[in-house]
């Protein structure tokens, strides 16, 4: 069952110009996020992903459509009932949003204090969470005494304090260096695994999705243009926006510029083969490309590991008589996706 179910969700903002058309930040989004997912929502600046987060936790009202959180349509609730729903939704932010005037323990305890949890239970929960995020020794420290990674760990502990069912991470690693990012992402995976919390990760960094995501939705101009399990989206992106993101971390078909450069060095037939090791091993492709009268050289691409599976896009230069080359291509087409890259016009 979907713990978050969105149907035709629209969010519009009034035009700053009198009589102007409203700005549609979210445009007819429908998504199901299953309990236990680490669901990535990715898009460039202005795609609508951060607005979508504010709609999920009801910090802003929808213009139209419905959003169900664990079976409850929050678009129909008044503010008093929304407060109870928000208790089940934790939030971590890019800039941490800690209270500089409160120490680490007080920051973690703050949501429980608002929820009127008694002090003994608050103190016990704070101690448990600081131990979980590896900051037991920093309980009395203040935010300006912490590194960026430590601040985000405090943010995660605070978000977990009310035992939420859902954790929303809005660009939670964008302000961190690569090693600290990896540490925080490992912690989020542990949160998901240990507590079964559904995590929605909002990001513009495809590597974040590759590292921890189970499913992903790609947004552009307020719309979800593609969504599915991470392996399928990464190995075979269908929308141009998705292909742009995937190309930032995974070599695919050469771009026009790269193809032109390849052509200056390789005068044979260039072909790209898409390989998924659950279907076809790279050595099988190579054995079919190389035959009597043909030679093959790998000139672009590579293999990638994701979720225990390997996939890749490999570009070869084929040399030989035209008929022999066509025969080799036909042999490969029986076991894998292959396409010939046409020569770039001079």
Layout of SSEs?
Layout: E1 2-13, E2 23-34, E3 38-42, H1 49-56, E4 64-69, E5 72-73, H2 79-87, E6 89-93, H3 104-114, H4 119-132, H5 148-160, E7 166-170, H6 178-195, E8 198-203, H7 206-212, E9 215-220, E10 223-229, H8 230-235, H9 240-247, H10 256-265, E11 269-276, H11 282-289, E12 294-306, E13 309-320, H12 322-333, E14 337-340
Parallel strand pairs: 3-8, 3-9, 6-7, 7-8
Antiparallel strand pairs: 1-2, 1-4, 4-5, 9-10, 11-13, 11-14, 12-13
Distinct helical segment count: 12
Order of helices and strands: EEEHEEHEHHHEHEHEEHHHEHEEHE
Low-confidence stretches: none
Q: What is the fold-level CATH name, i.e. the topology of the largest domain?
A: Rossmann fold
Q: How many distinct domains?
A: 2
**What's the total number of strands?**
14
Query: Which structural category fits the helices and strands?
Result: alpha/beta
CA-based gyration radius: 25 Å
**Principal-axis shape:** elongated
């Amino acid at each position: 069952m979907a713990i978050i179910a969105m149907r035709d969700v629209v969010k519009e903002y009034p035009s700053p110009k009198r009589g102007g058309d409203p700005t549609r930040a979210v445009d007819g989004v429908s998504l199901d996020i299953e309990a236990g997912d680490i669901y990535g929502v990715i898009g460039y600046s202005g795609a609508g992903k951060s607005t979508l987060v504010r709609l999920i936790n009801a910090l802003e009202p929808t213009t139209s459509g419905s959003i169900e959180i664990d079976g409850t349509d929050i678009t129909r609730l008044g503010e008093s009932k929304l407060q109870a729903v928000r208790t089940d939704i934790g939030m971590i932010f890019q800039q941490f949003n800690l209270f500089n005037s409160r120490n680490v323990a007080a920051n973690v305890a703050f949501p429980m204090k608002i929820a009127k949890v008694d002090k003994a239970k608050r103190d016990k929960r704070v101690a448990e969470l600081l131990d979980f995020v590896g900051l037991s020794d920093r309980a009395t420290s203040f935010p300006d005494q912490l590194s960026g990674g430590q601040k985000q760990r405090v943010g995660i502990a605070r978000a977990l304090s009310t035992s939420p069912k859902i954790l929303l991470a809005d660009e939670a690693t964008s302000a961190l260096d690569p090693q600290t990012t990896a540490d925080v992402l490992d912690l989020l995976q542990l949160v998901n695994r240990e507590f079964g919390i559904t995590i929605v990760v909002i990001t513009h960094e495809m590597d974040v999705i590759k590292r921890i995501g189970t499913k992903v939705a790609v947004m552009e101009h307020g719309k979800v243009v593609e969504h599915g399990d991470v392996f399928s989206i990464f190995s075979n992106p269908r929308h141009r926006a998705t292909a742009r993101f995937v190309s930032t971390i995974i070599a695919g078909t050469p771009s026009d510029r790269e193809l032109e450069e390849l052509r200056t060095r390789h005068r044979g037939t260039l072909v790209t083969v898409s390989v998924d090791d659950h279907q076809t091993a790279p050595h099988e492709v190579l054995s079919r490309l190389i035959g009597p009268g043909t030679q093959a050289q790998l000139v672009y691409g590579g293999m990638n590991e994701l979720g225990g599976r390997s996939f890749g896009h490999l570009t070869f230069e084929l040399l030989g008589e035209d008929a022999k080359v066509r025969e080799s291509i036909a042999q490969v087409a029986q076991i894998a996706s292959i396409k010939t890259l046409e020569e770039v016009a001079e």
